[in-house]
Write a structure and sequence with these properties.
Blueprint lengths: L1 H28 L1
């Protein structure tokens, strides 16, 4: 049961990390 929740959480965490990286790149470019 918890394996599904962990997998979903890991996917969300990956998406958030990618968004943060993109924001950092945009801030550095400006």
């Amino acid at each position: 049961m918890p394996s599904i929740e962990i997998r979903y959480f890991s996917i969300v965490r990956d998406a958030v990390g990618k968004e943060r990286e993109e924001l950092e790149v945009e801030e550095g470019a400006t």
